[in-house]
Amino acid sequence: MGSFLLKRSGVMLLTALCLTFIVFFLTNLDPNLEKLTKSEGNQRMTDEQVENWLVKNGYRQNLFKRYGEWLGVAPGWTRTDADTGKTTGRCIRGGIAPEEAASFCGLLQGYWGHSLVFKEPIGGIIIKKLGLTGWLMFWVMIAMVPMALFIGVVAGMREGSKTDRTLSTFSIITTSTPEYVSGVILIVVFASRLGGLRWFKGTSASAMDSITFENFFLPVMALALYGMGYIARMTRASMAEVMTEQYIRTARLKGLTFRAVVLKHALRNALIAPFTVIMLQIPWLLTGVVIIETLFNYKGFGWTLVAAVGNNDIELMMAASVVAVLVVLITQLISDIGYVFLNPRIRVS
Amino acid sequence: MERLTGFEILGQVMWNFAPVWIALIVILAASVHFRSRLGLYGKLFDSPIGIAGLVLVLFWVLTAIFADQIATFDALDQISGMKNKKPGWPVKGQEGMFYILGGDNLARDVFSRMVYGSREVLVIAPAATLFAFMVGITLGLPAGFYGGRMDTILSFVANLVLAFPVILLFFLLVTPEIRADGPEFQLWGGQKWIASVPNLMALFLFLFPIIFFVVLWVSRLSTQPRKLAIYLAVTLVLGTWAYLGLVFNADPLGLFYMDPNLLNIFVSVVFVNSPTVYRIVRGVTIDIKTRDYVAAAQTRGERPWYIMLWEVLPNARGPLIVDFCLRIGYTTILLGTLGFFGLGVSPESPNWGQTINEGRKLLSLYPHLALPPALALMSLVLGLNLLADGLREESLKD
To answer: In the A/B pair of chains, how many CB contacts fall below 8 A?
Structure first.
């Protein structure tokens, strides 16, 4: 088990490095840097001035060196101006004297950079926004997982029955309805003049201060419905497979009730596969979160990502990407480990 | 003129789709009649889910084909005084003409835009899925068959792409800036080609269909040099022609051409889909290569690529066909997501995702703007998913 964990973590680390480097490369393409320069300086800078500014601020070093600086494994650049004798550098900022500034300042040292859009240190923004999105994800999980498991177990319990057909069709419909479609339909039905119901609010801006049933129900449902269908179908397949096993037949033959067979013998074995699916569903929800937060104007992590991309806020984009990549990789790791732990048939030596 | 009532609107919509209904009935009647000779497709008519899926998919395919006959206006026509008008509103000055599903905020016909939107999706989604399959099959077969170091490296790269949050990849990869960035190369005839990230990806990914077919023919026809020469010549001429047109935009006849916007979207979607196809093909290959008929082929002394392409691949068709349907649906959703964020589409295109995004801003006042494209997208994806389910059920019965 130990070597398995070690190997998986090693691969994960390598993947994280590769992915963040790709993101770093893509966010630091020339046109993006030029846009950044012009928004920092002024819009009428000549190409030469832009180039000068980029050289002066360390953007024209080797890409790998800059990635190292950003990560915090390479020393930050410093530069002494020949005319004024003033020293500037990556780590010299906010009134710190050049001699006292640290030589390394990157992700590993806890320095995430400064946001152009929010005019704040990025570390704080990310934590705040992740908190908001955390609430959204929490309620989505609360709504989605029990609903999906219930539908899957009931459908898979008696394969081919009318209940099974109805529930399976329902889960196919929900997997066919991406968030931007279900969000629109839910708003029209429950929050517009046409639907006439007006039970809920079509925007969740107020949920950032206090979450209520009225302002949070629609975004949670839109996200939960799309993710639910897939988990339900996996649970159904797993349940249906377990129900054909020999030990289920034995349990039935020794006279247990159908209810006892399902609850005591089938359920535990049938829930191994859905566990991995649920974990792997979290990175998938990320796309949904971006869509839903945009649609419902809930200014969480997804909304921040859109804002960062829209405003060419390179450092914020990088920080958001790191978080997104980490979320994906950690959930993958948990799902792998969980699968091994839960399944008695798999032994990792 | 009076505004149409709800009932009349429904009638108008049905009437406008008349070419689709006629074609649908003809196709279904013919299919049911010849079902015993149609293999897996014919068996689809045994499952209600399969039929429902087929009808929905055919409906949208036919809508895309007959879009010019169905749409009452052009997708870009703006008629003054029709801004945000409710469904069934009569068009001023044109007797008997209505905006059946209302007008959008630029006074364009919502119904016609929805109909033309089907073309956008149904051209790109199946083509992109097909390309993803070519890439996935060409790499997945040897990875599963040989295993070893190649498998390790390819699987690592595939997992790398899969670990990339899709939405982030789109935000970074589908931008106007990225298309213009890179060293420029002079081509013949004064054409220029920029080695930007999407162009380089196209350069790489579009090679795979050519490689696939060349290997397919070489492995099969190596004993019939004359036939092989003909097949290879046709593949290479057609392939190179399309390749030059699509990748370098340098088709001398101008037949193969892809708008840089579209190329960017296309390449990104293929890139996102290929690793999953690779994983499926690899998994199925590992399973199938232990079968007896593979051992028999090996004993006969067949070459590895013959076994992979002519023994393993045909026997893996069941899961692959099912996944193909599912993947077109998923690609449709991805294209909608791209449109929703306005990535890589021209602002006036009737793309469903983009129309939903425009409509959502006025959703509580004018729900008729976003609802038709939303329902259209949903029904197409639903059709594809049901079709995949029906196919899975029928292929398992074999």
So the answer is: 131
